[in-house]
Amino acid sequence: MLVERLKEPDTSLYKSSLENLSSLIRTSTSSMTSVPKPLKFLRPHYEPLCELYEQWKDGEEKRLLADVLSVLSMTYGEEDKRLTLKYYVLGKKDATSWGHEYVRHLSSEIIQEYNARMESEKETSDLKQLALEIVPFFMSHNAEADACDLLLEIESLDELVKYVDKNTYERVCLYIVSCVNYVTPPDDIVILKTAHKIYRKMEKLPHALNIAIRMNDIELMKEDFEACNDPIEKKQLAYLLARQQINIESEDDDLNEILNNTKLTENFIALARDLDVMEPRTPEDIYKSHLENIRKDYRGGNVDSAKQNLASTFVNAFVNAGFGNDKLMVDKDESSSWIYKNKDNGMTSAAASLGAIFLWNVELGLTEIDKYLYIEDDNIKAGALLGIGIVCSGIRNESDPALALLSEYIESDKAQLRIAAILGLGIAYAGSGREDVKELLTPIVSDTKLSMELSSYAALSLGLIFAGTCNSDISGDILQVIMEREDKDLKDTFARFMGVGFGLLYLGKQEACDVALETLKVVEHPISKEFSVLVETCAYAGTGNVLKIQQMLHMLNDHLDPEKEDDKFQAYAVIAVAMIAMGEDIGSEMSLRTFNHLMHYGELVIRRAVPLAIGLVCASNPEVNVLDILSKYSHDNDQEVSLNAIFAMGLVGAGTNNARLAQMLRQLAAYYHKDPNNLFMVRIAQGLLHMGKGTLTINPYHSDRTILSPVAISGLFTVLIACTDIKNIILSKSHYILYYLICAMYPRFLITLDEDLNNLSVSVRVGQAVDVVGQAGRPKTITGFQTHTTPVLLGYNERAELATEEYLPLTPVLEGFVILKKNPEYVVEDMEITR
Fold it and tell me: Domain limits of the chain?
């Protein structure tokens, strides 16, 4: 009847009819499965109403009719014509009165229209204005995700800051930051900058600093740090910066102590005491040889072989890392020292293991290592130099002991002392960007008379120290060297480390590596292809960039003959897939499926690299299916595949004490008891599994798996690239490369501190992390939790939250060092159950 009225010539009835029609549409309710009655009855009248609209003169009635048609077009309009948007613009432009579903449909049509206009290069400012009119509606109706999507699609995300308030900022930021992995550059930086602005607007500095760290923007970090006026909150910011090993100077001594990580060793030892794991462990405690099913007469022969002693050296170093005590090395007389049970280069690793045992404890560590600097044997002296570098890893010290002690050996006439000093400097100053160290090492890179091993290690150390800085001087020097070096030098197995150093300069910098890639094309030697892969791997590490992963997989399509062509780049491309995909869960899962295919159909060089890539994707995250895959590969016919698979098992279980994996490794030790190389690798894996007696992790991600530590990923990457030629590097004379894993080691603890930075024991719930992005209400962020008292250890997929509201944490993520403030609004409940 109302529609018939509109067709009559009496114009006075139009307005009331339209208003009645509008209210009927608005107020109609229906069940979820049926169409609202008014819309159902208006279906046959939709076309006549459209024709009527064209005949009417402009006026309020025509605008009212346009509004009705706009709503009806949601269901009856042709999809491509975007009629809802067309009639909305012609109507009264009051979207909010028609309800949520209408506004969502309108926003989708705005996005379609925007994309269509961008293709034909037409003006879009009116669409942006329309979008900004409906964003407040979304914000006030718990549909923040829709608002973010709309602004993201029409490239106006920076406008979001105006519409956010204290009730919505958490959900908005959580949603947009979780989108970062799925957008193409430069949108990812736009999103992070918007989130940063929102946090700054809400004065949530720890949240803002986490975003600045994720962007790797030093200036922004300094700005956030300086903007903090609350001295306690500033200390919390300092802990966040120290975890990422970012060098920011401060006037305040207390802050400097935190920024320099000076107290890390003290807190780690306190954690160990709390967990009752201070008792040093011997390698035999780890191997549990009595559980291996080997007949005694077999074992008797090789108990004291040099290879097995070398393995025990590493196991001892990894298991007692950071504890400052062990049963083989510390406080032993020279005559009975474990060092002399090793041969040649084995002595180097044995002396260097002291650095790992005293990890982070610079003063005690240097005192213990110092005596080995005065021994005549160059192997031991070299080990002491490397140990000095290791003990200073991740710690900044005012007196710079590593630089003072190692710089005098940089020009030594003995190659092994030079190598040890170069590697020691790289590990000690990783990520610091120190110019004075650069001046020491650059001449060694450039000098073409030196061995390729020396020059490559110098380039590697520079890459570590200047990771992610795009330093043009260093990259220019390395490019110059590969143009000038002879063919035999570039074919040297150590040349790969020069490529790693070159790649690390561009760590996480994405397109900034394009200039370097173009320059590499000029080099005619096949090494340029290897370097290109390494550079792109580092530049896109952890970004989840699908196009780069596809590009790497294309390289793996070619079946090359290793006799005629250089195929090393394919091994690096496999590791590249893991490095790029490890940033987010879906990518990691997809990469594991891809590796399965590569293992079936790939060439030998590819198959050898696959276990390493799996180890990187799941570092310190022993998932059952991954362990089963690696267990299968550890019995492969090709020895290098099995060696790498065993090492990957160590990486996957690193620092977790996983009982299932420990059993697998014991079985492998029995299986390979006659093969010294495989047995050596099994022992290393056992050492990694019980690293730090189960208190450490080597996963490069922290802060709820959102922030990638450049130093940690650099150390892991170096070791993995070394393992692509495991027989000539790790199993030959350069086993000390395994100490690069120290760069990635960090305690996986949660320590709560009071306002005076003293340990404060509180109840926390620790459980499996749950993804709550975009969920309604206040969903629980963990599931299957247990309640513990801090300090506690956190696994890879675990998250912690405070059990009571007595304290307020100063940081968004309960991980590492967290300062707690008393909650002024907390009321102790009378009904508290007494224990």
Answer: 1-92, 541-746, 749-822
At 37, is the secondary structure helix, strand, or coil? helix
pTM metric for this prediction: 0.91
Q: What is the tally of helices (H) and strands (E) in the chain?
A: 40, 11
Reference 313, options 689, 684, 722; nearest CA is 684
Which residue, 311, 395, 409, is CA-closest to 353?
Answer: 311
DSSP code, position 556: T
- 787 in Cβ contact with 765 (< 8 Å): yes
- Per DSSP, the three-state class of 144 is helix
Give the pLDDT score at 5. 53
Tokens of 294: 């080997």
Nearest to 41 by CA among 57, 63, 21, 67: 21
Q: Structure tokens of 157?
A: 């995300």
The DSSP secondary structure of 750-774, one letter per residue, reads: EEEE-TTS-B---EEEEEEE---TT
E strands within 277-434?
none
CATH of span 541-746: 1.25.10.10
- pLDDT number for residue 835: 43
The predicted pLDDT at position 329 comes to: 84
User: Which stretches of the chain score pLDDT less than 70?
Assistant: 1-43, 46, 53, 59, 77, 92-93, 95-96, 293-304, 333-336, 829-835
* Three-state DSSP class for residue 801: strand
The β-bridge partners of 817 are: 751
Q: How confident is the model at residue 101, as a pLDDT?
A: 80
The residue type of 209 is: L
How many residues would you count in the chain? 835
Provide the pLDDT for residue 297: 42
Tokens of 193: 């900058």
Q: Report pLDDT for 334.
A: 63
Question: Are 459 and 417 spatial neighbours (Cβ–Cβ below 8 Å)?
Answer: no
Burial of 655 (0-12, 13-18, 19+ CB in 10 A): buried
Q: What does the block give as tokens for 210?
A: 């986490």
Task: Find how far residue 130's CA is from the centre of its chain.
Answer: 38
Write down the pLDDT at residue 833: 47
Reduced to 3 states (helix: H, G, I; strand: E, B; else coil), residue 268 is helix
Tell me which H or E stretch contains 606.
Answer: helix 604-617
The reported pLDDT for the residue numbered 25 is: 66
Sequence-separated (6 or more) residues with CB below 8 Å from residue 618: 588, 626, 651, 652
Q: Look at residue 12 in the predicted model and tell me its pLDDT.
A: 57
The dihedrals phi and psi of 153, each to the nearest 5 degrees, come to -70, -35
pLDDT on residue 544: 87
pLDDT value at residue 570: 92
Query: Which pair of tokens denotes residue 151?
Result: 């602004």
The amino acid at 345: N
